[in-house]
Structures are given as C-alpha cells and as structure tokens.
Amino acid sequence: MAEHRRPPASRRASRRQVRYSDDPEPERRPLLSSSVFDHATDAEPVFSCPHNPVSHLPVYTNIHRIRRDIVSIVEDYLSLDQLRDVRINVSVVRPLVDKLYDLDDISIVYCLLVNRAQFLNEQSHLNNRQNVHFTRATLCELIATRILRRFSEDNEGTEGLLVLSHILVAGFEPFQNAPEHIRKEARATGAWNKTLPALEVAILTESKLFLSSTSCQKV
What we know:
This protein is mostly helical. Helix content is 58%, strand content 2%. It has helices at 9-21, 59-73, 80-83, 86-101, 108-123, 132-154, 157-169, 180-189, 198-204, 208-211, 214-218, and strands spanning 171-172, 196-197.
C-alpha cells in the first residue's frame, strides 16, 4: 500500500489563505442575501403579521350599550345574594344575559368588566359603599360570569377551550372602533386607552366571583 503522506506545510498554508481570503470578516457577512428582502417580485409580502381576529368587534359601542342597560335597570342598592334571588334572576339577570349573549361577540365579557371598573370608580368617590354604583358593578360581574359559562357550555372540547381563552386573553381597548372624532377627543384629553385582556381587567377590579368561576378556572 502506498504510504499516505500529508501535503507540505506550504500547501496547507496556501489552502488556509484561500479559505479565508474571500471572507476576511465573517461576522459582518449578512445571513441572507439582498434578494431575500426584495419585495418587488413577490406576490405576497414576505413579512406579514397575522390579522387581528378581534379588531372588527364594536367594543366602544358595546361598552356604552351595556352601561345604558345597567343604569336603566338598577336604581337601588342590592347585594349579590339579592341579585341571585329567583325573582331578580328571572326579571333582570337572565334577560340581560340572553340579550348580550345573542350578540355572539367575545368582547362582551371585557365590556362588562370595563363597566364594572367604571362603576367601582364612581362609587369610590362616595363614603357609603352600599350604593347603587356598587350594585351596578356587581351586576356587571354576575352577568359576565354567566355569559362566560354560556360560552363554555356551547363550546366543548379543545375548540371550546380555545374560545374561552380568546375571551379572556384577547386584547381590547375601550375606544376600539369608536368614531374618529371620539378617538381624537380621547387622545387630546389623555383618556385611558390601554389595550388589556378581560382577565387582567377582572384581576384589577378584584372580580372574585368571576375569577373563581369554573369556566375561568378551566382556562
């Protein structure tokens, strides 16, 4: 057998020179060629974020619709136990749950909790905790809990869990799809316009009934 011989040192050195001479600074070499970033010939954009599936929902309209309904119905102080009474449930709670659930809008839970936050803010300026604003806030939480349960009952399995997750963690903001002049006025006055999920609003408003519900705990 012919003896395997290593190439001379000079040849090995020349190979190393050829290997590195074409790329003296590999750290500065782009990982992708410039043609990758050329969008002129592409049928679709290379970099595209997925469309927000909840951006079309009328959050601003829903918030004010719910507030009008709650204000028109609740004019006296009632405790949570009184709101759960059979007569109140049949005459007040269930009709509101049916009306809002029939909208088939996953932002309704968020809108109810935002109204709860607003009613609690209004009652915080009063010395008497047992006032009509507190009752309105409690009713918003109760309805939100019932609607979330309806969504859970009507959507089973993993698909149902995904629906509940969207309801609780999808980001909404209170002026979503508001008229442009309203949005401009809100920006000019520095109105609170932060995007939050319903779950975070529930935590901030200490909505223990909602957070401890089976549907919420499932997520």
